[in-house]
Amino acid sequence: MSEKIWFITGASRGFGREWAIAALDRGDSVAATARNPAALDDLKAKYGDRILPVKLDVTDRSACVEAVNTSARHFGRLDVVVNNAGYGQFGMVEELSEQEARQQIETNLFGPLWVTQAALPHLRENGGGHIIQVSSIGGISAFAGIGIYHASKWGLEGLTQSLAQEVADFGIKVTLIEPGSYSTDWGDVSSLHATKLPAYDAFREEAAKARAKRKASRGDPTATRAAILKIVDAPKPPLRVFFGDGPLAVATKDYESRLATWREWEALSIEAQGSPGR
How far is CA 167 from CA 128, 171, 224, 231, 241, in A? Predict the structure, then answer.
């Protein structure tokens, strides 16, 4: 299999780092972005010229364009673009400040949009490629206390499903990775928390217990290395794929509930259409 050239955002930690290592270990090359490229010094020392550390804040559209263009010039092309950079904003909907809400969307939704827009001309010119969007089980379901995070990932899901249809004729593949709970720092040092309102203290306590149960069965991020390589090497990769053992059960319960409600209210839905021609 020929060498692939990867562009990975948020490569200094979590899945981004694991997947950079997976690619580099098998002989691929990686343009690895981070807010602080010094966090990639150990990978640079180990892998040398096959890794290009790039300083990038994905909320800066012009910086995204420059980072992608610089990486493509450096390696000669791009084959796999991974939009991994992001974080979790905790807080009840009422608790969120305007700045917290905007910053979450700027990073988790607009960031992937800017990188994708910058990468597409290169992929089209190359006659193909693969865009990987890191979503979450939180991109298809929702839990209390992280509503704005869900908004960012649900937005990414819709954006990406449209994207996949738009670029298929160019030979460009698109995949949403939807991880469940993993032993990363997503819910710890990487997350932000809104100022708490006392009115939600009791509810917050119950939500914390539920999160603790999910945390007890978190997956091993290193196990995703082999999985991501299988995705990018697949002749026909999936548009959506879960990582982890728990998401399918959550999705099944959620979607069965939605279908049941839609069917229960179908008569009203039809009534609301009115008579043809009116």
Answer: 9, 7, 26, 18, 19
